[in-house]
Design a protein that fits this description.
The chain is about 15% helix and about 30% strand. With about 200 residues, it is an alpha+beta fold. The two termini are about 25 Å apart. A six-stranded antiparallel β-sheet has the order 3-2-1-6-7-8, with no helix packed on it. Strands 10-9-11 form a three-stranded antiparallel β-sheet. The protein has a two-stranded antiparallel ribbon with strand order 4-5. The longest helix has 9 residues, at about 150-160.
Length: about 200
């Protein structure tokens, strides 16, 4: 069985739960208000051999429009069994995690997109192709390109760039609250659910 318990920590201290699959390495359920610990017995008398969500999932409205960017809540996902953690975004209108659903999504964002500084804010733009003309929020992709990818860092190092000037990897979702990165770019489906390679 590849299903494990994920804890979703909200900034106000609230704790909710979800199912996490080690097969696809991402959240595979909505949120639950409760869980059963290892060794607990469910309503049918089955004994849990690991912690698992309990009762019914919280109601959601996946067809509702996304909450406004300032209403989106940054949460922290903590997953058994490997103690993986990552920042994710919760939409109050939909009452669900809208992404990233995986700890590895931030790495995929760094491979698929560049950052462009425009009007003192950083925007996501596709790393290649015709779509590079526009940021994910639909603005012209003009401005200084800011490398933030660890793969770009490897290229910099092979070119003899001093280590202190190599761009560091960044998790843009962890920076949600500071407003330096365009929230509309980060809420774009391609950024929330970047393609696997």
């Amino acid at each position: 069985m590849g299903q494990w318990l994920a804890r979703v920590r909200f900034p106000d201290g609230q704790l909710r739960y979800a199912r996490y699959s080690t097969v696809v390495e991402q959240l595979v359920s909505g949120l639950y208000d409760d869980f059963r610990g290892e060794g607990a017995t469910d309503a049918l008398g089955n004994v849990s051999y690991r912690a698992a969500v309990a009762d019914e999932p919280c109601p959601t409205d996946p067809d509702a429009p996304l909450s406004e960017p300032h209403e989106i809540v940054l949460v922290r996902i903590e997953v058994e069994p490997d103690d993986l953690t990552w920042p994710a975004l919760f939409c109050p209108r939909r009452n669900q995690i809208i992404g990233p659903h995986s700890a590895f999504a931030a790495d995929r964002v760094q491979r698929a997109f560049d950052l462009v500084r425009r009007d003192a804010q950083l925007h996501l733009v596709r790393a290649d192709g015709a779509a590079r003309r526009l940021t994910l929020c639909g603005e012209p992709a003009v401005g200084e390109v800011m490398p933030f990818c660890r793969y770009a860092a490897i290229v910099y190092q092979t070119m003899g760039t001093p280590e202190e000037s190599v761009p560091a990897s960044r998790n843009l979702y962890a920076e949600w609250g500071d407003g330096h990165v365009c929230r509309r770019c980060l809420l774009h489906d391609h950024a929330l659910n970047p393609p696997s390679e």
